[in-house]
Each structure stands twice: as structure tokens, then as C-alpha cells.
What does this fold into?
Amino acid sequence: MNTKTKKLLQEYSRNSRITTKELGRRIGSSQQSASYLLKSLKKKKIIVSNTAVIDAVKLGYVNVMVGFNLLNPQNKKEILDELKEVGSITSIEECNEGVDLLVEYTAQNLSAFNKIHSELTYRFFKDLRAQFIYPVIVSHEYSRNYLSRKFYDHDVILFGDRVIRELSENEERVLYELVKNADKKLIDISEDLKIPVKTVVSLKKSLEAKYIIRTYSAIFNHVKLEIKRKIIFLKFTSEGVRKMDKFSEFAKRNKNIIKFVKVIGDYDIAIHVESLKDIDLLNEIRSEFQIDNYRVIKSVKIHKKNYLPLGEE
It folds into this structure.
């Protein structure tokens, strides 16, 4: 992967609705060159899809992480196809170490999650076994700073501010159009929803001003890019918990940590780590912080990634 591609991926994952003119400026290239490279990466399925990063808690949702093991790996494709159709499952990640599948549910409350999850596990009682269930307290998402020398220290905080935002009917309609297709042109949204384009622009800005839409990102094919991806769960000692704020700053400064999540369960936090070469981040963490236990999950493919439920159960 050359330098220009790395820069483009970093900038595009920060804002997948960026104009090609601005994208070219940020990667030190012409608009034409940036546009060609972007189209090429999409055509080769290196950039798999775009996604609107939504703070679902502001609409009354909770997030729950579940690790599954496959009891019958030969049924993997069928199971994945079924999981993709579950509207409340907003993320599916296939793994080859730690667990077989890392799944995230986004539901109206824990009772709703339990109902959906119980029905799912009953349906697949011969094929799936839940290894853990961790409700999410708060999530911090960082830039992919390992791709470029340019370091962005801004973080997108999700599930922190639990003040519910009221949306108008048209705000909801525009929101779900962007959730379904984050790079859909506003003129196309206008035509599909039969809403004037100036109104669509205003509604989109309103959703962003209310911090419901936080940004627009992208899902990459990590295998093709030779990006190594891990999710590391950490349990701090009683003394180590006192240094949680220090760890939060450590995560924000570390170029390979792209997400930091506080959870409820056997572990205190989960960090999503990506790198272009083998790194021993876990030992670095254990040398600086008091860790009681850990679990390492190695990811091989992201099959689904939304931030808001789509469809009915």
C-alpha cells in the first residue's frame, strides 16, 4: 500500500462524504487523481461500504456486544446470512481467535435485547453458543492514525450523553436514508422522499448539530489491505481501575487504537487495534497498567456495520 493510498484511507474513514476536491487537497493530489484512486479502491472492494456514524443513545437505544462460537462451522455461511437480516444486529465481525463471531446489538433497552437475543439463540441452539454478553457504557472512536504521519487527536464519543433528542418525521426519514446509504447524494434523497433539496440539506445539518450523526466513515477489506485487526478486552486490578482516565488518554494518543469501549461484565474495557505490521501492544499496556485479565480476539472480516437498527424483527 503506497503513501497516497494510506493517506486517502485515513481521510476517507474520517469523512466518507468528503468532496474529491477536498480529498485531493488533504492527500496532496489533484481532484482528478484523488477521484480515480477512490473509484479504484471501491471497484476492487478494498473500500467495502460507507457508514453514517450515529450516536444511537440519543434516540433511546443501548448497545450490547456478544461473542459467539460456532458449534457447526460448516453452517457458517447460512448463519451469517441469517444474522445479517436481523435488524437489531448492527455489527458482525468474523474472527479466527478468541471467538468465532463478534456481534453488536442495538436495541431500545436491555429487555428488548434479551428478547431478540434469546429468540436468536433458540433458533440456532445447535449452531451458536454465546461466550459473553457485555452492555456498552460509552465508546470512543479515533482516527486511523497508523495510516499516515498526520495525527488527529479528535475522538467521536458515542453512548455517553444519554439525553434523548426528539426528531421530526422528516428528520427521521433523512436519517434512515443516510444510515442505509451514507454516500447517497442529497438530490437523490430529495427525489426519493419527495422533499425539496434545500430542506434535505437543512435536515441533514440539523441531525449533525444535534450530534445524532457524528460523522461518516467507511468499512475496509482488512485482508486485501494486509491490516491486522484485533479487539482486546482488559480487566483492571482494583488499583488499576483508578488509572482508567490515564488509560483513556493512552488510547487516544496511541496511533494503533481506533476504538476504546467501556463495558459491563467480566472486563472493564475493549480496545480495537489495527496495524500494518505485527505489534505487541498488549505487553506495552501490561507494563504500564495493572491488568488482572485479558482476552484477545483476532478479526478477519467485517460482514456488517451500521450504527442504527434497520428493518423489523
Notes: The radius of gyration is 20 Å.
